[in-house]
Amino acid sequence: MLSTFSFHPRKVLTTGEGGVIVTDDEALSLRLKALRNHGQSAPGVFDEPGVNLRLTEIGGAMGEIQIRRLDELVGARQSRAKQIRSELESVLTFQAVHPGATTNYQTLAALLPTGTKPQDFITKTRALGVQVGLLSYDLGNIASLPKRAMPNAAECIRRGVALPLYASMSDEEIARVIDVVRRVLQTG
After folding, report:
1. Using one digit for the tens of pLDDT, what is the confidence trace for 14-46?
2. What is the pTM of this model?
3. Nearest to 105 by CA among 69, 67, 145, 77
4. Residue whose C-alpha is closest to residue 167's, from 108, 90, 96
């Protein structure tokens, strides 16, 4: 059994890039440690091909500081997401949070109105200084993978965007996101 955590810049906790794998399986842990270090189980002992995936000390220090503040960072993201969602729920569709569940808002995902093209919306919002991004990519259309009917995922690809959201976002920045999103949707 293993779990993975991404530290990509858009995540709640970031080291600039990279991630971590945790496991309670000693053999798997040793193999993963070797794979991340060019496949070496000991200096100069190459058991299998590997890659250089070690987290830098600077990245590790960044992550350690953020872990100490994780509750604060998540709380700030939740608060800012709530502000944005409440102001834009009349023009965008947001994923419901299941009763009893919480979200860290790693991404503030929204579906655009039907017929609005995400790339056009992104181009227009960026031209006005708001860095909206695509919500996700269509991995179901990779030629080498079997095709599966995934209508909800397809709808997220067709209409999904990721709105700017970070823990230190100011009220002024939040107001700008809300204003720009509304303006772009109103002008088409």
Report:
1. 998 889 999 999 999 999 999 999 999 999 999
2. 0.82
3. 77
4. 108
